[in-house]
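For this section, I looked closely at a protein sequence along with its fold in token form, which I now present.
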Amino acid sequence: MKKKVFWVALFLLIILSVNWSVKRINLNPNFEIGQKVDSLNGVVVYYNGGVNHVADRDVTKDGYNLGLKYQCVEFVKRYYYECFHHKMPDNYGNAKDFFDGKLADGEKNEKRGLLQFRNASQLKPQESDLIIFSASLFNRFGHVAIVSKVWEHKIEIIQQNPGPFNAPREIFPLEVKNGKWQIKNDRVLGWLRKKKSEVNRIEKAEPVIFLSKYLEIKDALVDSKNLILNKVDFEKLSTLKTDSAKTDLWECGNPFEWLDRPWMEKTYGKYDEKAGNFPKFSGEITMIYKKGIEYSTNDHIVLFSRAEAENHNFRIPSHHIILDKNTKLKDFKKLFPQLDAEKVSNNEVRFRIYLNHLSDDAFLFYFKDGRLQNFTLWWLLC
């Protein structure tokens, strides 16, 4: 009997030890903690490794607590803060605490400053809803995510910290029964949402004048997507058919050398500073051509290169700026008073916004006959 108790206790100890390790240690060699793995509407999802791993607290410049990096709570609060300028009245609490079980369907959750809907609601989930999961045997804190897509009978969520080997996006069935919508997952408690009037007010916000000569890649969007995506997400998110692809030798180097340095070194060997290359890398980069838009890839991440304004747009969410085929030269100059026009031909000019003050790499915007024609992410390589 004593021997049996011993082996049972040992087994439980091993299970608990493995569970502790998995939750705190990064067991996935393909990603580093803090690496960008996905995004929605310009808000980045970061890789966190083990689900219980935490870094420092993420606090906005105006002192609002977003949560611990890179937990699920930190992402959803950052998403609502950046997309809707929303601050939760109670800015602390675990994921499961976002749902108040005492409220009726559609009532306002005062602690979160959002409308709350139960999982079996008269209102269907919408994109950007904040979805709440209950605690489980191995996750006593619960989980939160953002609804990224809604179809007739299913939804997609985007999440941070799902575990070291789980994808940032997940799909659940959705059904309507007795006039109520229900997400078919036993852990889903419900979802939170901004009032429609508040969202409309934010969406219609007037553009803010851009007073800098610099714009980081992470602060811009093309067609509401990040300019850098991992290849799997790019193929999943891109709705345009690929017209063609071409692989060429880039003799002067390429931006992946610094944008994707950890993966490049893991795949092709440590970067040789003297030779200016990776020992096992051929130097070949693939260009992907779709309708009016171009990308480059090193077969790991995909980088925006160029787009025609006729069918695509360039956004700076922080300033509510959208540039497309309807953007006139005179309006562009008003929005970007710090930029100088560079003459290209008699009826064509361009403007550049540098990526930072240390290099000449820049966004280029070309105007012809007074209207935006195309925009490019340009690199000084030679």
